[in-house]
Design goal:
This protein is mostly beta strands and 93 residues long. It contains one helix and three strands. It has a domain of 34 residues.
């Protein structure tokens, strides 16, 4: 699910609750980046305040970066470069 909030406040005391438009559901976003949907507001707060139980941060750009490997070693081989495709600025005829 795409995150509905801009990166603004952060820290261990920041919780976000969004109403999912057109539904009776609430999207809870924990300070660790984990997200879950609920119908009951009490369940939202139970889940948020139970951190870290049941929380799995979502993968993506908000995940913390991996620690650098010691000098002279690599954690994993570099990924292959993507193939260059057509220039998106060029219009098709």
């Amino acid at each position: 699910m795409k995150s509905l909030h801009p990166p603004a406040l952060t820290g261990g005391d920041v919780y976000r609750i969004h109403w999912v438009l057109g539904t009776d559901r609430l999207l809870a976003v924990c300070h660790c980046g984990a997200e879950s949907e609920f119908e009951d507001p009490v369940q939202v707060w139970d889940w948020l305040l139970a951190h870290p139980d049941g929380h799995r941060p979502r993968a993506g750009p908000t995940a913390p970066p991996a620690a650098p490997s010691p000098r002279g070693t690599t954690a994993e081989p570099p990924a292959p470069s993507p193939r260059p495709g057509p220039d998106p600025r060029e219009e098709a005829p």
